[in-house]
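Morning run. Coffee first, then this:
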Amino acid sequence: MIYTRLISHQRVLFASLVWCFTSTLLVAQQPTKLTEGLTFLAGFDGTADATYSAGDGKVYHAKSLSLTDAVTGLPPDVVSLSKDGKYGGCLKFGKRSEVCTFYRGAKNVSFDAKKLSGTVSLWMKLDPQKDLEPGFVDPLQITDKAWNNSCLFLDFSKDETPRHFRLGVFSDYKYWNPQDTPWDNIAAADRPMIVVEKPTFSQKSWTHVAFVWHNFNADNSVAELFIDGQSMGALQKPQRVTWDSQKLAIIPGIYYSGLMDELAIWNRALSAAEIKELSSRTAGLSVQVDQQ
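And here it is:
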């Protein structure tokens, strides 16, 4: 550009030095380990209980999404441990079922009413067209209320071919939908979701999925979805989330049929570079946790 050509060599040198200095500071402030800020990790190696957890690490199951009458352990004949994981063992979800597997969210998912950030990472192996039964399927929900109220979720749509894969980012219901507009009357572009119309899941290989939320309940709120280390899109809009930590739940595999491995949660938004590293690791995070 003409303007660039008119800048003196001195100014270019000064700007370069400032940029290098600033970049050095930013790099220095970045966490040095992927496990920094880790609050929950389930590696599914011989047990469905968490490998590491800041709160209750036990796995539970209940008869429905109300999560009442919870019982410890995996639901018999619905979810089982398999040795065919990405990193050793994994969870195997069978036929569609109303029974829910879940973990307690308190401390395992960080909550800050003023500034909320975090990351979820997991591996999935399935063919959505062949393995999933009709209806919506949520490989993961994090909420203390419902899918459309203070909820972060991953789901497969029910009507499209191929089935869309989506990240739902739902603030408190009255905040994102103050007029109580029926869902079917909300234009697709106005729904708080990131949609991947042609996801690349397969029965033959593992797919890495991650999403981050940053500065919720504050300014410059951002949520972003990644598949195999690549960004699938971001939502940049104000978000307001209130969680009752004692009711908050991490719910994997709602109506899901397929394999799942290494479900991990952080109390910080991982960088794109860190998520890229997660998607290309030859060893699971459990190894790094064990070495700490």
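The first strand starts at residue 38 and ends at 42. Good start to the day.
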